[in-house]
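Let's practice the habit of predicting before peeking. Look at the sequence and jot down your guess about where helices and strands might fall. Then scroll down.
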Amino acid sequence: MPELPEVETIKRTLIPHLQGQTIAGVEVYHPGVIAVPDAATFSHLLAGKRITRLDRRGKYLLFHLAAGYCLVAHLRMTGRLILTAATDPLLPHTHVVFHLAGGTTLRWLDTRRFGRFYLGQEDEVMVTAGLKELGPEPLDPAFDVATLAAICAGRRRPVKQVLLDQHLLAGIGNIYADEMLFLAGLHPLRPAGSLTGDELVRLHLAMQAALEQGIANSGTSFRDYVDGRGQQGKNQDYLQVYGRAGQPCRRCGRTLERVKISGRSTVFCPGCQV
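Done guessing? Here is the structure:
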């Protein structure tokens, strides 16, 4: 699933081409990907709307529109938003096509069809899409060590599980949680509430470093993820632990191990993470 760095990269690649553009029309080929409203109303409401601003919240991409509307896209497992020329043939698994006034199209492709769109007045869609329930943004300047300490305080759950909880922290998924914990030198099964002040400082710094590296490398591409131009990211070439179980740690040489935490595969170094 695309995480914070991937969705941020998609946003940044789309802004120069979409911000200020008008949606001339919409074709929906698979109505099931439209969560709210129904597909016909979705297409009708979007026709003629100008895109005023693009934002990201957690793993969600937000298109702010004229007249107070907001379109929210949740990519989930395999969703992709790709800019193409209007004359380009439709690729397999294309479910929605947004026609822009300038002759470009924005296409939604989703192999597994888990991704969803939400459209409505901004205040309403924040509720229906679940954005009101998200925790703070880890890269927000207001997110400091004290905020992280308050999130972890008194929690017996493993720190890896806390990092993945979107109600506590927005945008972190399995890839970057593993990388953060390695950079911080913390075992993923450590109870979040057991972290000392120094460990919380390390984790906070590691969170910033892992996410900023992911953005700088245009995201992590293993299977489906591409940016808004259809290009893969490069961050998979720089991962320290994720996807490397059974291989030697690049720092100490010990064999990286894998455990399951809340059903999620977790890779760590038994030598570097305590």
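How did you do? The chain has two domains: 4-133, 145-268.
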